Amino acid sequence: MNKRVHVAVGVIIRNQQILLAKRHGHLHQGGKWEFPGGKVEPNEPVTEALTRELQEELNINVTASSPFMTLSYDYPEKQVLLDIHLVTEFTGTESGAEGQEIRWVDIKELASLPFPDANQPIIDRLLTELAH
Ligand SMILES: Nc1nc2c([nH]c(=O)n2[C@H]2C[C@H](O)[C@@H](COP(=O)(O)OP(=O)(O)OP(=O)(O)O)O2)c(=O)[nH]1
Ligand SMILES: [Mg+2]
Fold first, then answer.
1. Which ligand ends up closest to the CA of 100?
2. Ligand 1 within 6 A of 127 CB?
3. Residue 132's pLDDT is what?
4. Contacts 24+ apart (CB under 8 A), 47-54
5. Ion ligand 2 neighbours, Cβ < 5 Å
6. CB of 39 shorter than 6 A to ligand 1
7. What Pfam families does this protein's entry cite (predicted)?
8. Which end of the chain, N or C, is more open, meaning fewer C-beta atoms within 10 Å of its C-beta?
9. What is the ipTM of this complex?
10. CB 100 within 8 A of CB 57
11. 10 CB near ligand 1 (under 6 Å)
């Protein structure tokens, strides 16, 4: 059975830098950098999922975000719908709350890091629209 997985994704931006997390090696697309986030639960509003996932993964509380883009991508083994939001304000101090490596990266550096294949259009838009 094929069911597209709805994923809430946060592009957390501060001072021309973006907060990335490294996916654990055993996960789907493991070992690559990602924008933090995770699966939207049944009947859960996407902004709620975003807030919940960033609390769980980074121990931060999102206080301002806006929709950025949505993206469907078919991996050979999995279909995802990435629901990407810009996170422009949060409270708390970010940490890799699930033991993952995290890193602030200049927007212009994004092009040189390994991301899941689905992410290329996100990187392209961040570079053209937000880097200066
Ligand atoms: N968070 C995130 N997921 C991404 C990105 N790019 C991309 O293809 N994905 C895919 C990988 C996974 O198949 C899916 C996210 O699922 P996940 O495993 O992180 O979900 P989750 O945090 O809810 O984890 P779980 O507890 O349900 O296992 O989306 C990205 O930039 N960020
Ligand atoms: Mg996740």
1. 2
2. no
3. 87
4. 47/8, 47/85, 49/8, 50/8, 50/9, 50/10, 50/85, 50/87, 53/8, 53/10, 54/10, 54/12, 54/87, 54/90
5. 38
6. yes
7. NUDIX_4 (PF14815)
8. N
9. 0.95
10. yes
11. no
